[in-house]
Amino acid sequence: MEFGRTQEQAIRHRDGPMMVLAGPGSGKTTVITHRIKYLTEDCRINPSDILVITFTRAAAEEMKERYVRLTGAARGVSFGTFHSIFFQILKLAYRYTAQNIVRTEQQMQFIRELAGKEELELEDENEFVTSVLSEISSVKGEMIDLRHYYSKNCPDETFRRIFSGYEEQMRRSGLIDFDDMMVMCWQLFRERKDILAAWQKRYRYILIDEFQDINRLQYEIIRLIAKPDNNLFIVGDDDQSIYRFRGARPEIMLGFERDYKNAERILLDVNYRCTAEIAGPSLRLIENNEKRFKKNIKTAGARGKNIITRVWQDSFEENNRIAGEIKQYLAAGYQYSDIAVLYRTNSGPRLLMEKLMEYNLPFRAKDTVPNLYEHWISRNILTYIKIALGSRERSDFLQIINRPNRYISRDSLRNQTVDFGELKSWYGEKDWMVDRIENLEYDLKAVSRMSPLAAVNYIRQGIGYDGFLEEYAGFRRMKPEELLETADQLKESAAGYKTYEEWFRHIEDYAEELKRQASAGKASEEDAVTLATMHGSKGLEFKIVYILDANEGVTPHSKAALDEDIEEERRLFYVAMTRAKERLHVYAVKERYHKKVEISRFVEEYLG
Question: How far apart are CA 357 and CA 351, in angstroms?
């Protein structure tokens, strides 16, 4: 096989630390597999002395398969994720089995029970539980002193009690989570030098893929195992570090040469994937980041079309154009699977999915797309409409009766069916409560006669649902915009329908399509357009890529406040751009939800 000059240098590196900077499409997997072959066949290194670490089980399997295809057998080389390696160490030291690893459902149940004891009023329990588990993981992985940690989801004292309760429950149940594996390995190696020495002897050559995604604790453990020879071969791209929210720290890669003064550095400087017209602007963009290695990357010579950058009036026009252009690409001989649409968050593709369904164009969502209409905010607003149209179910009333707060007690709704006359008589002499109930009756009658769009507006402004969302955001330490955007999306959907009947039929069809997507799964062989978040697109490539909604507040995301957040957002946009092999479309809009929006600063940066 023909290798480039820098690939050859990386493959033939013998001993000591080496950092391989591998830009997009530069053949890093080829370098890793051929390096293992070089070590075992040319240098006569015992295959069982070699450890290859990746971040996902799928990546480990793929690496192993590529190596087997290359050499005919895995021949004793260890391929695994950080977690699988750490668990192997704990298994031998403490006799752990798979039964000791906590399941996600168990973790969620522990947090649910602890949140219940705190008597927190949560509108979306699952979202709260997932967010708190993510915070617990950060505290452990970053080795943060709990006394100095400030929660993003609830009052700090509440978080500390939940954290301590979770740890106690885990110990009592004899369970460990993935973060415990790291903490326990680190403690074991510091306390038991004999056990550490055994693992140092076992793995004399360590190769790590996607090194830019490593966290502090993983790095400290690997540094211990690599001693004293420090045959540490790391491959990654600091410009593609996009998982800070999971604890990844690109600064670890940036500081590698400080930790290993004798480390060699190689840049795989040829992008074999993108045309020069895509690679050039993407480099112009990423050069705006200050904390990075400077790189001079060339392409393999392929020429193509310039990036198509367009600004549409609104999301309806934008998505309409994408669906129309996909049909044109198909007519020109491309396959559906040649095309991908990338977006910043998983709520991004809803309008596009609806448009593709309308055009009967097959698509596959790589990441789970949440159903807007099942979000608790949408459910609340739709329940108001349901009651306005005649429902008298107690469960429906309980959902909206105090959103906003009318101070109506659950006890006043005694029967399975609610009767307004009975409700008013329950409050009898309390005229102010009777007034509130009569106002609700009036509001519901008004909603029953409105179009879907007018109804959503009236519930939010006239009835005061937006005020309730703002109060709840304050309690949950969220920006109100995060909640109001869901209400805006529902309003946007309602605008497309004249009657409730039409709108509800669409909501059902959309739910059916999402179910079909989920059951088809990622392994589906169907020829389809790929829809993916920018995070989910990493490692993939397509002939044609669309980037959706290149607007401020979307990308970079409105939550990105600090300089390091903006740098991460820029890396994410860079990853999205470099998924495209031949054609790249970057689309933005002038307004979202009838509010003017700015074009993303990243567009100006790549245009130069």
Answer: 10
